[in-house]
Design goal:
Structural class: mainly alpha
Oligomer: single chain
InterPro entries: Tscrpt_reg_HTH_GntR, WH-like_DNA-bd_sf, WH_DNA-bd_sf
Radius of gyration: 17 Å
Protein name: Transcriptional regulator, GntR family
CATH class of the largest domain: Mainly Alpha
Order of helices and strands: HHHEEHH
Helix content: 55-70%
CATH architecture of the largest domain: Orthogonal Bundle
Organism: Dokdonella koreensis DS-123
Distance between the termini: 28 Å
Number of strands: 2
GO molecular function: DNA binding; DNA-binding transcription factor activity
Strand content: 5-15%
CATH superfamily of the largest domain: Winged helix-like DNA-binding domain superfamily/Winged helix DNA-binding domain
Pfam families: GntR (PF00392)
Number of domains: 2
CATH topology of the largest domain: Arc Repressor Mutant, subunit A
């Protein structure tokens, strides 16, 4: 199923955040264009084996970010604003960067050590660690 999302209970990322990330990824990749209908909250909860509350939280976050719009009685759809997905990704990036800085400080790494490792990671193809 093309609209299927793959959620992992073993991931350190909360389920609602996995839903947000995967919807944003599909929108950014053009797989789900503007106006594309999202699975209903109940359908996605059932297919993903998560609670309705989890999916509802993800959809609310996506709505707040402007990635999707929900029309009462009709469902949720990808919004017309393509930049909204970028805003969600930037928010995710900033959160992960803050976590990186916290971990670097915990390890006692110097700023130059962190920069060197980031530059090294950026020089690798995107699918390499």
């Amino acid at each position: 199923m093309r609209d299927a999302l793959v959620l992992s209970s073993h991931s350190g990322t909360p389920m609602y955040a996995q839903i947000v990330e995967q919807v944003v990824a599909k929108v950014m990749a053009g797989e789900w264009p503007s106006g594309h209908p999202l699975p209903s909250i109940r359908e996605l909860a059932s297919a993903s084996r998560v609670s309705v509350i989890t999916v509802k939280r993800a959809y609310l976050e996506l709505e707040r970010a402007g990635v999707i719009v929900t029309q009462q009685g009709k469902g949720s759809f990808v919004a017309d604003q393509p930049d909204a997905s970028r805003a969600v990704l930037m928010d995710t990036f900033r959160t992960q960067l803050a976590e990186l800085v916290t971990t670097a400080r915990t390890l006692g790494l110097e700023p130059q050590d962190v920069l060197t490792q980031v530059e090294e990671a950026l020089s690798h193809p995107s699918d390499s660690p």
